[in-house]
Give the backbone structure.
Amino acid sequence: MTPTAEMTEALTLLKGAGTWHEFRRSLEERGLDKALHPDDMLDLMVAWNSRRAADLTDSALTQELEFWADGGTFDQHLEGWQAVSPAALVAEAERRRWFTRRMASGAVVNPPVGKPLMIRSLDVMVAPPA
């Protein structure tokens, strides 16, 4: 499916945004927040999380995965709802070809250095505040 003109513009804005809130303001200034379908907004959140996860070093990715493996929540995370979602972190580990096994209850990720990590919160809805 070809993205709409609005979605293409939103993806361009996403690439230049420093924070999710900055991105949302850009959408609102252009009226795209009202023009985009709710599914488009979910796709944009996935793209945002994927970009943030890809920017992490191996060490930082491991630290984030350890946080979630230890039972961390968005409320406990230093970045709060700005934190990269567990699902995006696991997907990034897979992209880097780290051993990853998905299961019904989550995923096991084995970083290049350290012990295997069980991530149980893959289905956590990522919903940064508006």
Observations:
- Residues 62 and 113 are 8 Å apart (CA to CA).
- Helices lie at 5-16, 20-29, 32-35, 38-54, 58-69, 86-95.
- The longest helix spans residues 38-54.
